[in-house]
């Protein structure tokens, strides 16, 4: 197996995922299911025999707690960890904290669908996925990728859309392609990287 390993994990289910709320930069905790998902991710990664050299996460507690639970399950609590706002979830602006059905009732199903699933149209006061890519990608290129290319086995625990920004680049997806890509909670995506920073292969670890 290549030494250049990058693992991406979306945080486990949060309380607001469960309630069908737009979350963004708000900071709810994990549900019991989310804790179980994070621990399961750690068990799957441990079974792969991976030993992490460095970990990256966002400033939001659901991602940080997921990382802590993953590393705890692996017996690797002392891994160097770096947290950055660059890895925060997409900011949903005025939609944050709203139930998705209530948002549809207020603005109409078509408009909410545009905000959720278009690449470059942000919700009021918030970010589009293009905006999220614009803040996430430079951090990946400057901080995360160099560690991977040096042979440091690296884990990133973050959010559906900040991880989509990375997946878009790693897998060379179009804006249309990345908007259709589902990123499941608590499922590790293991990338083996070539020396030129392209992806050799990717596997999702699931039970």
Automatic annotation (TrEMBL):
CDD domains, sorted: HP_PGM_like
One Pfam family in the UniProt entry: His_Phos_1
UniProt key word Isomerase: yes
EC number of this enzyme: 5.4.2.11
Any GO BP: glycolytic process
Site (Transition state stabilizer): 159
Gene3D superfamilies in the record: Phosphoglycerate mutase-like
Database matches in SMART domains: PGAM
Keyword Isomerase belongs to the record: yes
PROSITE patterns: PG_MUTASE
Keywords, alphabetical: Gluconeogenesis, Glycolysis, Isomerase
Top EC class, one word: isomerase
Domain of life from the UniProt record: Bacteria
Assembly: Homodimer.
Family membership noted in the UniProt record: Belongs to the phosphoglycerate mutase family. BPG-dependent PGAM subfamily.
Purpose: Catalyzes the interconversion of 2-phosphoglycerate and 3-phosphoglycerate.
Protein name: 2,3-bisphosphoglycerate-dependent phosphoglycerate mutase
UniProt source species: Xanthobacter flavus
């Amino acid at each position: 197996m290549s030494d250049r390993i990058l693992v991406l994990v979306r945080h486990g289910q949060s309380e607001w995922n469960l309630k069908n709320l737009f979350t963004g930069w708000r900071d709810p905790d994990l549900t019991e299911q989310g804790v179980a998902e994070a621990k399961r991710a750690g068990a799957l990664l441990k079974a792969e025999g991976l030993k992490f050299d460095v970990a990256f996460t966002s400033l939001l507690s659901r991602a940080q707690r997921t990382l802590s639970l993953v590393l705890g399950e692996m017996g690797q609590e002392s891994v160097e960890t770096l947290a950055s706002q660059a890895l925060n979830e997409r900011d949903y602006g005025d939609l944050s904290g709203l139930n998705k059905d209530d948002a549809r009732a207020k603005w109409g199903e078509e408009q909410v669908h545009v905000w959720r699933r278009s690449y470059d149209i942000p919700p009021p006061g918030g970010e589009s996925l293009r905006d999220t890519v614009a803040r996430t990608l430079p951090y990946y290129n400057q901080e995360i990728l160099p560690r991977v290319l040096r042979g440091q086995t690296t884990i990133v625990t973050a959010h559906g859309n900040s991880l989509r920004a990375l997946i878009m680049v790693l897998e060379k997806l179009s804006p249309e392609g990345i908007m259709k890509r589902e990123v499941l909670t608590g499922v590790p995506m293991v990338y083996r990287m070539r020396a030129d920073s392209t992806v050799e292969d990717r596997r999702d670890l699931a039970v």
